[in-house]
Design a protein that fits this description.
alpha/beta; single chain; globular; 12 helices; binds ligand LLP; Lyase, Ornithine Decarboxylase, Chain A, domain 1; 30% helix
Length: 427
């Protein structure tokens, strides 16, 4: 099994050398428990795999997956760069010490104000449309400004329809067949278009679509190079690399994956007689997903027409199962080797029937008070959490070499309502 699961000598779930039950007792539940060393390992495995075959390579961590400040600091300290999608993400990246040349902005449907704001913050933009290009030229001085264009490589993949970002149904990027025109427009407006970007989707374990997308992005880049003589400084193939969520799924052999894709990429550079650009990738999930476990406590075991294990978190805390039907492996952190005895539904505490973490899940005998670990919660877990049902966002704890530290306090009730204003006439 390729899931990141460790058990300690008390038969409890081990997270980065700390006991999951102790973490739950000390910090309360629900709590997101982050394993620092796993993040470092994931980043280095990824970076080393590609840079070994193509040294002019940079990783831009797609921070929408997890913007915990400690997580971002860890990646900053590793030398990682960051891919952002909003002025807020640029703001926090710069504040944490990422210099502007280590930040990419890949927004879509953004306003003139936002375009100007991110430009003024000094970061490189992956421009998503003709409209954005023209509007950017209106709000900043385009003279010699380096920009990159996001193209639709007409390849899409993803773990769910909502996470596919290439092909005819996708809102992202410019059409493959208008690339020369749009790059020409960029030049005519005064820009220096030196980058090309594509991103096909998220949660992809099959290597094939990546190869197709690299091929098609390079064919687009090659044509633009031939037509306009543009020498690309960088080629950015986005993110999307999946991780195993179920016990049956196999992790990608990242070294093999890197080797195959780099060879293919080099072949394309040769085919189009292109100089060697820097290669960018923007993994989010791959870096953080399996480094974080959501710990919850069982508060009620109920036999209705089905058997429910009720826990003290819901889709307000981890949305993925409800939003995408995503599988997250669940373990009883209090008794890891207990035999599987039943198939049960694991339900949250939100007042909606869809608030389930799992249906018909094989689990051991679970008692009220047990601590469950919901694995692979590091990517798009906390960042998609909400205050629905007026529940505070949970705490986050960072574990380094067995020592847990609180890195985000749980919200208070006051935090929930802080920004609301009751008009005078209702006072
Ligand atoms: N680059 C761009 C331009 C993206 O839009 C994304 C993700 C990434 C990189 C990183 O993709 P990753 O390596 O993490 O797959 N909420 C969904 C995932 C949405 C992904 C959005 N874009 C989920 O929970 O599965």
């Amino acid at each position: 099994m390729d899931l990141n699961i460790k058990v300690n000598d008390k038969d409890h779930l081990d997270i980065g050398g700390a006991d999951a039950v102790d973490i739950a007792n000390e910090f309360g539940t629900p709590v997101y428990a982050i394993d620092e060393n796993r993040i470092r390992d994931n980043y280095n495995r990824f970076y080393n795999a590609f840079s070994k075959y193509y040294p002019d390579f940079k990783v831009f961590y797609a921070c929408k997956a997890n913007t915990n400040l400690a997580v971002m600091k860890i990646l900053e300290s590793e030398g990682c760069c960051v891919d952002t999608v909003s002025p807020g993400e640029v703001y926090i990246s710069e504040k944490l010490g990422f210099s502007p040349d280590r930040i990419l902005f890949t927004g879509n449907n953004i306003t003139n104000e936002e375009l100007k704001m991110v430009h003024d913050m000094g970061v490189i933009l992956n421009v998503d449309s003709r409209s954005a290009l023209k509007r950017l030229a209106e709000v900043v001085d385009p003279k010699g400004l380096k920009v990159s264009i996001r193209v639709n490589p007409m390849v899409g993949a993803g773990h769910h329809e909502h996470t596919i970002t290439g092909g005819v149904m996708s809102k992202f990027g410019i059409m493959d067949n208008e690339a020369t025109e749009v790059y020409k427009l960029a030049q005519d407006l005064g820009f220096d278009p030196i980058g090309i970007h594509s991103h096909i989707g998220s949660g992809i374990l099959d290597p094939e679509p990546f190869k197709l997308a690299i091929g098609s992005t390079m064919d687009i880049a090659g044509k633009v190079h031939d037509d306009l003589g543009i020498d690309f400084e960088f080629v950015d193939f986005g993110g999307g690399i999946g991780v195993p969520y179920t016990p049956d799924e196999k992790a990608l052999d990242i070294d093999h994956f890197a080797h195959e894709n780099v060879e293919f990429f080099k072949g394309k550079l040769k085919e189009y007689n292109m100089k060697n650009p820097t290669m960018f990738l923007e993994p989010g999930r791959y870096i953080v997903a399996d480094a974080v476990t959501l710990l919850v406590q069982v508060n009620s075991v109920k036999q209705s027409y089905r058997k429910y294990i009720g826990v003290d978190a819901g889709f307000n805390t981890l949305l993925r199962p409800c939003m995408y039907g995503s599988y997250h492996h669940i373990v009883d952190a209090s008794k890891m080797s207990a035999p599987i005895t039943q198939e049960v539904d694991v339900a949250g505490d939100v007042c909606e029937s869809g608030d389930l973490f799992a249906r018909d899940r094989p689990l051991p005998d679970i008692e009220e008070g047990d601590i469950l670990g919901i694995l692979n919660s590091g990517a798009y877990g906390f960042t998609m959490a909400s205050n629905y049902n007026s529940r505070p966002l949970p705490a986050e704890v960072l574990i380094k070499d067995g020592n847990p530290t609180l890195v985000r306090k749980a919200q208070t009730f006051d935090d929930l309502f802080r920004n609301q204003i009751i008009p005078d006439y209702l006072q």
